[in-house]
Design a protein that fits this description.
Low-confidence stretches: 1-6
Distance between the termini: 48 Å
Largest sheet: 8 strands, mixed
Number of strands: 21
Strand order of the largest sheet: 8-21-20-19-9-16-18-17
Shape: elongated
Structural class: alpha/beta
Strand content: 15-25%
Mean pLDDT: 85
Length: about 800
């Protein structure tokens, strides 16, 4: 809850219905301000910087690692603190990512009206918009943004309500009509009483919802990593205590050695480097996309988009170019010659503002006015779907045939449908026997001609939609235009099942929307609220949904989608609320983003299995040490050595290699099954090394070194297996890691606890290294066979 709500009085002060020329008194303004009924913006429901830092620093696992570090310092084994840089890096990356998201959301603003003109004590004043109060009499003029929800008392204005309709069309408003905050006055002036201010206003409610972070909404990969960490967090405490007890009290090792063994086992069970790898890989992908003119606000969406199976798009700006053009003029009654008709329409258009693509196209095409005097006009009404101009020769209207002709539309339905089915937007131009006022037409309209317009289809649209069809992604076209027209354009763009269309005005219930959204491909005459309902219905059906949008009215639907994509040419609010922004407003960039996501997911599945090898080995070996009374063989520094050169470094390198394969299966299942054979192999050969090393009376340091070498050998084997099919680059990565691992053992032996070995221990190490290869191969075949058998049975 925002602070503003907390200091508000539970009940508003008594309403005052002041005269438009008088306004509120200074005392009435003071009372409302003190009661909290001013226009102070809603505080964003985001965490503070301090909260973000605290949430990332004071975590359960950071506490565990802090305790482990303290135990290592106590035992004076300082070199075993080699795991701490990874922990610090994980924490810093988490803080930076959250601060970046917070900065983007806090910048999101839909209100850009710094001051508002009000009437107080009979005088006009200019005050900061945050200081207007409930019941204030505000004066709105052309160019002003409406700062709070209001009701017009006197005057007439044309309003751009893109927030409500998604269309930059003018709506005529007069006394008694409502003005919604965030809308703009295009022409005229009025005095209006403020009915809802501050957190109660429409714009504040929209902003609050848009700024809500997506708590609990994570990509499948991140959810899988969280489950792994949660599992590790549950088991490390009892295993850590049991292992220390076994090592110190049953094996009679000193406190320092027992702590060393326990810390090595616990660290081995926590995939601390996996989160670092995932964060680093996503960050690099975001940078790579930025070079391709794609801005990433939320890095997790890179993976989500690669898994999307439904993509919701608008017609204009996605399938077609943003600009419109007039294709032809079709006379209806033939009474007016075509050249005179063009002049009449030019006179009509001269009165109108070119504030939307349709009227801009009409004005550009019909640009030879005859000079008739313009007596009055109304801008386009998105509610009643027409604009009007009163000339010397009479009153004329231009708009959607079904709204303008009304009862007479049936006579022309076939003609309109014929042109709409060819992808044209059809407008009717006619004379009216009454003076239009921007409201519902009352007089009859005599149609004079049809005007056919169209948006050119983007040249790369068919290729882009063909790509998504090949990837199994279903397209849903959601538009405010005539569904038949949108359907035809979708067909021309190569969208599958584009002939399945529906008029959204017929979808009056939630059940109808849920049923239609799964059956139809094209939706026409869609309202902004319906867009959001479509997204929710698809998600409720188990689909992973991406949505493209460019208007403020798209913001809430974009927030509800699993992955949201905005065009940079659209509204700033839509761009800030979206996870991805196409900086060149080029929808053809989408396949590149999908391919980047595939590379991230497939490569992290491959690299993630390397990390789980260590976790599986540590879990099995710790259990064996506890129940079979054997000494845990490895030290924390040795675990770090193996992690760097057989897991971390190769994992990072492999995560950047191109990978265009389809994402198959679940992330958790895939990495677990790839890691299981190597983890079991490590545990068996290290256990055998300990067993036979004790038989030959090998020193514990020798066994520890031999176990490190054996795990390194198996690590290089699993790396080779996971990297297949091999190419020159992968061989170079594999060779580099092997060389660096060997050099570290030779020249940094004291730091990593590597010691010389007896002849018996060397022979055992060589023997078990040879045995490891067929063991790993046959275990892999066994687990793959079990997986295939299980898949067939299910």
């Amino acid at each position: 809850m925002s602070k503003q709500k907390l200091h508000r009085s539970p009940e508003p002060p008594p309403r005052v219905f002041a005269e438009p020329d008088n306004g509120l008194t200074a005392e009435q303004v003071r009372l409302r301000t003190e009661s909290g009924y001013d226009n102070t913006p809603a505080n964003p429901p985001s965490k503070s910087v301090g909260d973000i830092i605290a949430d990332n620093v004071f975590t359960y696992f950071n506490l565990i690692f802090l305790i482990l570090a303290g135990l290592i310092i106590y035992s004076k084994n300082y070199r075993d603190l080699s795991f701490m840089p990874i922990i610090i890096a994980n924490t810093l990356i988490g803080i930076v990512q959250e601060l970046r998201s917070k900065r983007v959301l806090d910048k999101l603003s839909m209100m850009n009206a710094p001051v508002t003109a009000v009437v107080r004590d009979g005088k006009e004043e200019i005050v900061p918009s945050r200081d207007v109060v409930l019941d204030d009499i505000a004066i709105f003029r052309a160019g002003n943004q409406i700062s709070a929800d209001a009701v017009i008392l006197d005057g007439n204005v044309s309003v751009n309500e893109a927030l409500l309709t998604g269309e930059s069309d003018e709506i005529s408003k007069s006394a008694g009509d409502t003005l919604m905050s965030g809308s703009f006055i295009v022409s005229g002036s009025c005095r209006a009483r403020l009915e809802r201010v501050g957190v109660d206003s429409y714009i504040s409610q929209l902003t609050m919802q848009a700024k809500k972070s997506r708590k609990g909404e994570q990509s499948e990969m991140i959810r899988s990593l969280n489950r792994i960490v949660k599992f590790a967090g549950i088991i490390i405490i009892p295993i850590g205590f049991a292992l220390f007890y076994q090592q110190h009290f049953l094996e009679h090792r000193n406190v320092s050695s027992s702590i060393q063994a326990m810390v090595a086992a616990v660290i081995g069970m926590i995939p601390e480097g996996l989160f670092l790898l995932a964060s680093t890989t996503l960050a690099i992908s975001a940078m790579r996309l930025a070079f391709g003119k794609v801005l990433v606000h939320d890095m997790k969406c890179i993976e989500t988009l690669a898994r999307v199976d439904v993509l919701c798009v608008d017609k204009t700006g996605t399938i077609t170019e943003g600009n419109m053009s007039v294709n032809s003029l079709i006379p209806i009654d033939g009474e007016i010659p075509e050249d005179r008709l063009a002049g009449l329409i030019s006179d009509f258009a001269a009165a109108q503002s070119a504030d939307n693509a349709t009227m801009l196209a009409v004005k550009n095409h019909f640009n030879s006015p005859t000079g008739q005097q313009i007596k009055s006009f109304t801008g386009f009404s998105s509610e009643f779907k027409y604009s009007s101009t009163v000339l010397e020769s009479g009153a004329y209207v231009l708009g959607a045939p079904e709204f303008v002709l009304r009862d007479d539309f049936a006579k022309f339905r076939e003609t309109v449908s014929c042109h709409s089915s060819r992808g044209y937007r059809v407008l009717v131009f006619g004379s009216c026997d009454s003076v239009p006022d921007g409201k519902a037409l009352s007089g009859s309209v005599r149609p004079i001609c049809f005007i056919l317009l169209s948006n050119p289809i983007r040249k790369n649209a068919p290729d882009t939609f063909r790509f998504f069809a090949e990837q199994g992604v279903e397209i849903k076209v959601i538009s405010g235009d005539n569904p038949m027209t949108v359907s035809e354009i979708a067909k021309q763009a190569g969208i599958a099942n584009a002939e399945r269309y529906v008029d959204a005005t017929t979808l009056q219930t939630e059940e109808a929307i849920k049923s239609s959204v799964l059956h139809y491909t094209v939706f026409g005459r869609v309202t902004p609220e319906q867009k959001r309902m479509f997204i929710r219905a698809l998600k409720d059906a188990g689909r992973t949904v991406a949505m493209t949008g460019d208007g403020v009215n798209d913001v809430l639907a974009l927030k509800d989608a699993d992955c949201s994509v905005a065009m940079a040419s659209g509204s700033e609010a839509a761009a800030q609320a979206s996870q991805l922004v196409l900086l060149e407003s080029d929808f053809a960039k989408m396949p590149d983003v999908v391919m980047e996501g595939r590379k991230v997911v497939n490569n992290l599945e491959r690299s993630g299995s390397l990390f789980l090898v260590k976790n599986i080995f540590s879990l099995i070996m710790s259990t064996m040490a506890i129940f079979l009374s054997i000494t845990y063989p490895l030290k924390p520094a040795q675990i770090s050595l193996i992690s760097v050169f057989t897991i971390g470094l190769p994992g990072l390198c492999l995560s950047q290699i191109p990978n265009r394969e389809l994402i198959k299966g679940k992330f958790m299942t895939n990495i677990l099954l790839k890691a299981l054979p190597a983890g079991i192999t490590d545990a068996i050969i290290v256990a055998a090394m300990i067993f036979f090393g004790n038989i030959f009376k090998s020193h514990q340091e020798d066994i520890s070194t031999a176990s490190t070498i054996l795990m390194s050998v198996v690590g290089m084997m699993i790396l080779l297996r996971i990297a297949k099919p091999m190419n020159a680059l992968k061989w170079a990565i594999w060779g580099m890691c092997g060389i660096l691992l060997t050099l570290s053992m030779l020249f940094l032996s004291s730091f990593f606890g590597i010691s010389g070995m007896s002849i018996q221990c060397i022979l055992l190490c060589v023997n078990f290294s040879i045995i490891a290869e067929p063991m790993l191969r046959y275990l892999t075949m066994l687990i793959d066979g079990i997986r295939k058998l299980f898949s067939r049975n299910n």
